[in-house]
Amino acid sequence: MKNAFWLFLLPLYSCLDQPDCVRTSDTALVIEFRKFLTGEKDTVVLFQVIAEGADSVFYAPGNEPDTLRGVAALLSVNPFQSETSYTFYFPGIERTLKVGYTREARLISEDCGSEIFYSALQVLETEFDSVRIVNTELTKNRLVNIEIYR
After folding, report:
1. Which sequence spans correspond to the domains of the chain?
2. Selected residue with higher pLDDT from 147 and 3
3. Of residues 74, 84, 90, the one with CA closest to residue 126
4. Is 21 exposed, middle or buried (0-12, 13-18, 19+ CB in 10 A)?
5. pTM of the predicted structure, to 2 decimals
6. Taking the CB of the first residue and of the last residue of the chain, which one, N or C, has fewer CB atoms within 10 A?
């Protein structure tokens, strides 16, 4: 009976030596809108956000606005370039934001392969009044990267 117990645990033990394929990188850029005077989260009405050079349109195009009530906007950077330019369409106004970042290939393990890690986030150009970098790395945790004060 004791031998049968160990034979049962053997397959479980053999799984322990397999590498964990945990990927931490993400292409998600998290932008939070805040009130300029108080720093509180702001309610923003967006018609759409378009990333230059991509066929991606964030938020529904057309005449139906999307209201972000203190919620961060989740956009995606261009994984093939080291910069991405966005155009934000608000009611009656549009603003651009161009960000740059470093792309670094990292080997996770021989079995898992590699991933591209995005770091050193910076604002290259903007038409917004005040922009602040909060977190320079894009990770699966999806913490706020940029705060835009209006």
Report:
1. 19-149
2. 147
3. 84
4. exposed
5. 0.80
6. N
